[in-house]
């Protein structure tokens, strides 16, 4: 006898989707979740000072060829804005050390930006040893761009999402297209609805998965659980940290694939101001800074909710992810010096700040998604996703064809659930 036929590790998008799929097909399932909440990298909070904040995923992206997310949002009445926030260059302003780019300069910058994915891939194929940053530098130099504008191009090429362009090979770049519909209600609403009738054990940290015998034993900080199949949705950073022991150990190809991945880089810093001093119709303010391009250079003006219109948020990303170790106060000072470069010395100090620290959180240890380093390839993601005995691997980083997004995580949950259904 086993406690459950399938145990799923992690109650993020992948785990919740897998559990929902299996339970609706009469499989006995339990989800073990380390945190005292569900959602993983989907985490919407409500603070007295700032109202609703999406600490993790916010946008509905259309990457890859399989699409289920929009239909799910519609089915569960999760509202999203119908207008693509990133599609139009009119929604972005770029500031160099000489001030705001003129209309003509911005138009050219945006045209270069739109062609970047194609050109990065082209350079990557011709020169496979180049990183994305090196490829973008070549493109920027061709246009006679200054060092700071090149840094801004690198940020916008890939690093505003999760990648570190210094270590990601141009040859593996699978393209970022400007798209994104802001999910106004927050993805958390979808996760709550999908998890409504599921058996989820929170505060249950998986420490060891032993599949020596036919019955799999999972040791946790609470009590052991037994099952016939496991779906692990442990994030890449958590797998890399080896805080969960696999018995027998993970095969060499998986270990090598893990070593060749960067677990991602992206923190959000929200600042609330006493009043709005920026143009309300501009979506993104990008500062072209010659150094530390990942430290609070891109700023978003998102209408998070109706009560919280005077909030801007920025990112720590790419090679500057270590800034997440700085105190809130130090980050606030940095933010204000960046903003004053763009908007002048007269702007007010913020009345409130919120900083995410996904990269330091024991149950994420990374960013939105992982990507190959110079030694690696996109295929490493599929290697992570291969089953190992009766342990299946879901999560955003387990397929080279569905990558990067909440949708990729949901699809991976369905993929692994189907793998198990076909074995029974
Ligand atoms: C700042 C940020 C912004 C993002 N923006 C977007 C966006 O706009 N659009 C988009 O599509 N995607 C976005 N993403 C990416 C998206 O949120 C994630 O890729 C997706 O939610 C990952 O889902 P997952 O189930 O694979 O992993 P996770 O959500 O990380 O779930 C894994 C679960 O495993 C649990 N866990 C970890 N260790 C253990 C353990 N030892 N025992 C038990 N449980 C454990 C974790 O607590 C977690 O709940 C963003 C992510 C971040 C961080």
Describe the secondary-structure layout.
Elements: E1 4-9, H1 13-23, E2 29-32, E3 44-47, E4 51-54, E5 59-60, H2 69-75, E6 92-96, E7 99-100, H3 103-126, H4 132-142, H5 147-159, E8 181-182, H6 187-194, E9 200-201, E10 206-210, E11 216-220, E12 225-232, H7 236-241, E13 245-247, H8 252-259, E14 261-262, E15 266-272, E16 284-287, E17 295-300, E18 311-317, H9 328-343, E19 352-355, E20 371-372, H10 379-385, E21 391-393, H11 406-423
Parallel strand pairs: 1-2, 1-12, 2-9, 6-16, 10-13, 12-21
Antiparallel strand pairs: 3-4, 5-8, 6-7, 10-11, 11-12, 14-20, 15-18, 15-19, 16-17, 17-18
Helix pairs in contact: 1-11, 3-4, 4-5, 8-10
The site of flavin-adenine dinucleotide has 40 residues, from helix 1, strand 15 and helix 11.
Describe the structure in your own words.
It is a single chain. The strands form five sheets. Strands 1, 2, 9, 10, 11, 12, 13 and 21 form an eight-stranded mixed β-sheet that branches. This protein has two domains: 4-49 and 64-79 and 183-262 and 366-423, 3-Layer(bba) Sandwich (FAD/NAD(P)-binding domain), CATH 3.50.50.60; 89-178 and 265-360, Polyamine Oxidase, Chain A, domain 2 (Alpha-Beta Complex), CATH 3.90.660.10. The chain is an alpha/beta fold and 424 residues long. Helix 3 crosses helix 4 (132-142), helix 4 (132-142) packs across helix 5 (147-159) and helix 8 packs across helix 10. The protein has eleven helices and 21 strands. It is globular, with a radius of gyration of 22 Å. The model has no long low-confidence stretch (mean pLDDT 93). The structure holds flavin-adenine dinucleotide. Flavin-adenine dinucleotide binds at residues 9-15, 32-35, 40-42, 56-59, 61, 205-206, 233-235, 238, 244, 266, 268, 356, 358, 363-364, 367-369, 395-396, 405-406, 409.
């Amino acid at each position: 006898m086993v406690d459950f036929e399938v145990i799923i590790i992690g109650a993020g998008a992948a785990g919740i989707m897998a559990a929902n799929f299996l339970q609706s097909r009469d499989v006995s399932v339990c989800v073990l979740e380390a945190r005292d909440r569900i959602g993983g990298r989907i985490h919407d909070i409500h603070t007295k000072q700032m109202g609703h904040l999406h600490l993790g995923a916010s946008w509905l992206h259309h990457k890859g060829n399989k699409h289920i997310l929009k239909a799910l949002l519609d089915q569960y009445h999760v509202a999203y804005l119908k207008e693509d926030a990133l599609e139009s260059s009119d929604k972005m302003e770029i500031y160099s050390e000489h001030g705001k780019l003129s209309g003509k300069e911005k138009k050219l910058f945006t045209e270069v930006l739109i062609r970047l994915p194609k050109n990065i891939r082209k350079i990557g194929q011709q020169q496979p040893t180049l990183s994305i940053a090196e490829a973008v530098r070549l493109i920027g130099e061709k246009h006679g761009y200054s060092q700071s504008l090149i840094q801004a191009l690198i940020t916008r090429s890939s690093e505003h999402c999760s990648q570190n362009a210094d270590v990601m090979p141009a040859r593996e770049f699978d393209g970022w297209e400007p798209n994104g519909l802001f999910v106004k209600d927050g993805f958390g609403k979808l996760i709550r609805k999908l998890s409504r009738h599921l058996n989820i054990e929170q505060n249950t940290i998986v420490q060891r998965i032993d599949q020596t015998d036919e019955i799999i034993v999972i040791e946790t900080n609470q009590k052991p659980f037994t099952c016939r199949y496991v779906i692990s949705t442990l994030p890449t950073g958590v797998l890399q940290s080896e805080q969960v022991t696999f018995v027998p150990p993970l095969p060499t190809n998986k270990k090598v694939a893990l070593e060749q991945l960067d677990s991602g880089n992206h923190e959000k810093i929200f600042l609330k101001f006493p009043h709005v001093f920026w143009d309300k119709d501009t979506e993104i303010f990008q500062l072209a800074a010659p150094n530390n391009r990942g430290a609070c250079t891109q700023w978003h003006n998102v209408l998070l909710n109706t009560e919280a219109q005077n909030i801007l948020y920025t990112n720590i990303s790419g090679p500057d992810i270590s800034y997440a170790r700085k105190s809130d106060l130090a980050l606030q000072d940095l933010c204000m010096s960046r903003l004053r470069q763009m908007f002048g010395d007269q702007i007010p100090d913020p009345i409130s700040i919120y900083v995410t620290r996904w990269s330091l959180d024991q149950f994420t240890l990374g960013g939105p998604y992982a990507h190959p380093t110079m030694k690696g390839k996109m295929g490493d993601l599929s290697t992570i996703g291969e089953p190992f005995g009766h342990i299946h691997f879901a999560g955003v980083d387990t397929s080279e064809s569905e990558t990067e997004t909440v949708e990729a995580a949901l699809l991976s949950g369905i993929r692994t659930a189907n793998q198990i259904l076909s074995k029974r």
